Structure formats: structure tokens, C-alpha cells
């Protein structure tokens, strides 16, 4: 399902049948569950922010969760959890790499 060389995986809120996945806040919920899995491990208050390894976003109007492969390397059971969540809910998964935003033009 996911190549071992992928740097990032996008779990998209669209089923393979093309239906929008519900509830509408599924991405935030999934990322919230994964908030304690982060570089250096969970710390007091880490549940108040998303892990850099599992971030909810919207791409082209579709809710997604971007899962970084560092999660697989550091927390294999957490990686399996998010991948199995996608599989169990028949969600589309894409392997990709987020590109940084282009630099802002210099104003003079």
C-alpha cells in the first residue's frame, strides 16, 4: 500500500468510491490522537499541538492528514495505526512530498 521509501503519505478524506469521508473533522481527530507521537517523545502539554509527523490540512478542498515517514521509523505501531485507519475506512492514500512555500518577494 505504501512504499518504504516514501517521505510523506497523504491520507485523503475521499473513499475509493469517490465519497467524502465523514465526520467532517476526521483529520483533526486523527491528528489529535497522534499528537503525543513526536520527536523526543511526549512532553507535558504536547497534547495541545499536533505532532510534526501527523498534520491535518486541506488540499484542493479535500481534508487530508500528512503523515511523515519519521513516524514509521520512530513509532512503528503508531504508523500502523494511521495506515490501518486509512485502509479500514477505504480512504485514498497518496505518496508525496510537501514542497516548502516559495520565498516571499523582497519589498524595497
UniProtKB/TrEMBL annotation:
Protein name: DUF3579 domain-containing protein
InterPro entries: DUF3579
Top-level taxon: Bacteria
Pfam families associated with the record: DUF3579
Organism expressing this protein natively: Acidovorax carolinensis
